[in-house]
Amino acid sequence: MIDSKLRWCLAAVLVLACLGLLGFASLSIYARPVHDDFYFSTPVDSPSPQSNWGYWDDNGRLSSTVVYSLLYPLPHSIQIAPLITIALTFVGFLVFFYALIKQFSGIRQYRLLLSTSTASVAALSSMFIVPSFYASFYWFAAAPPHTWSISLTLMYLGLLINRQHAKEGGWWQDGLLFFIFPLFTGMLYESAALLLILISAIPLVYARVQNAKMPSRPLWLGLGASIISLLLLLFSPGAISRRHATTHHGLLERLPGYPSELWHSLSSLTFGPTHNLTILLITFACGLLISLFAFKKFVSAKKALAYSLTVIVLAAATIAVNATAIWFGMGVPLMIRSYFLTAAVLIIAAILIGVFAGQAAKQLSRYGRRAVTGAAIVLAVAVFISGLAYLPYARHMRGQMVDFSKSWDARNQEIVTATSQKQRCLVPVTAISIYGVDHISTNSSFWLNGEVDHYYDTHKKLGPKCGVVADGTVEKFFY
């Protein structure tokens, strides 16, 4: 049973983390269209809502395209999308950690409180740890494939863990949760489809080798749905068109650059400018405290070490799968936009290793529960003090969002005025650069300039060879 003092500590952690998440959610009012948002959004002067069907000519991610077609035409969709992204991030962690705590901790009371507190810390940590939080959480076009898909994958994994220890479900229930759900999730993003295949296949292989008994129907349904989603992604018209358009070098020619890009992806998240090791230390401490106070003693110190090494290997493999899908699947490295998966994996690994460390501490402690409790309290205080160091960084992030929105609004007004007055063919404006998001060029025929021209309908207003171009100056945000 969880001690009553720990219950209040968990409630305090939940309140503080939720306040942090609400603070990030409030920044959604400063989100503005960037990059592909111009392509999918309704043109600024359009009399009726509309959205481009990008499945056939853009990327082949059918689920993402459906999301775009449903949400982009809505009023203030650019500001609504970050709220959905943050909510899905929290719910994804919640479903995953609730399943783990329910199945492996032995806790009966306050299970939801413990899961919610852990999920809120993990979600907030993920927003701090990604190098470009705008590209991961506030850029609508990138959110469904790169962030929503991973949150939904965590939900699927949590549902699968619960299902393995539950009574046999009906076909309609299993079909909805373990076929339709992973099919939709897999068609959001290539890495999600690969992860779903591994999540479904590994338990099947384990059960076969160890002769273990587990419900196989959900796993086979999930495996089939994941394979179908990956095939639909890889061989869709949009994916084929995009690969042909973006692959400028052969596979073997690009192969030598892959290890360095993978290392850069991982090192940016651990030794980045925001000192992300502190965040990982905070999540590790959360897992340690949960284990010391709430989990039953269920593993030896030797097994705890083995499980920790297993988590590290699985985390490294997941990061490698993600980097491989980005590097080779689409023909171009888009590591920055896919950082959320790596961040989520690192956070989950840190929490789980903290849990295993707590189990080992219970086995190795020779000084009694009071000493272990005192050490945990000291660690918790140190963690919260280190967490306060991120308050200035949070204010910096808010300042960047405010400045970005002001610059965007000023440029938007400049373009609208220039196109309505038809004073010149080419409209020069300052390029707005965001880490992980491309910006317009001084070349009017650049493809991203074409997306901006679509949004402002400049070809119709100014002429077929006219449009918006960069004036040579660049304003940088979120670096």
Descriptive report:
The protein is mainly alpha-helical and 479 residues long. The two termini are 46 Å apart. Helix 4 crosses helix 5 (111-129), helix 8 crosses helix 9 (190-210) and helix 14 crosses helix 16. Strands 1-2 form a two-stranded parallel ribbon. The protein has two domains: 4-389, no CATH class; 404-477, no CATH class. It is built from 20 helices and two strands.
Element layout with pairings:
Layout: H1 4-26, H2 37-40, H3 62-71, H4 77-104, H5 111-129, H6 133-138, H7 143-164, H8 171-186, H9 190-210, H10 217-234, H11 237-246, H12 251-254, H13 258-270, H14 276-293, H15 301-329, H16 339-364, H17 368-388, H18 391-421, E1 426-434, H19 447-456, H20 458-462, E2 467-477
Parallel strand pairs: 1-2
Helix pairs in contact: 1-5, 4-5, 4-7, 5-14, 5-16, 7-8, 7-9, 8-9, 8-10, 9-10, 9-15, 13-15, 14-16, 14-17, 15-16
Can you give me a brief rundown of this structure?
This protein is mostly helical and 479 residues long.
Observed structural traits:
70% helix, two-stranded parallel ribbon, single chain, globular, 479 residues, mainly alpha, 2 domains
Nearest-integer average pLDDT: 79
Q: How far do the termini sit from each other?
A: 46 Å
Radius of gyration: 24 Å
**Low-pLDDT segments, ≥5 res:** 329-333
Described by the principal axes of the CA atoms, the overall outline is: globular
- Give the helix level as a range of percent: 55-70%
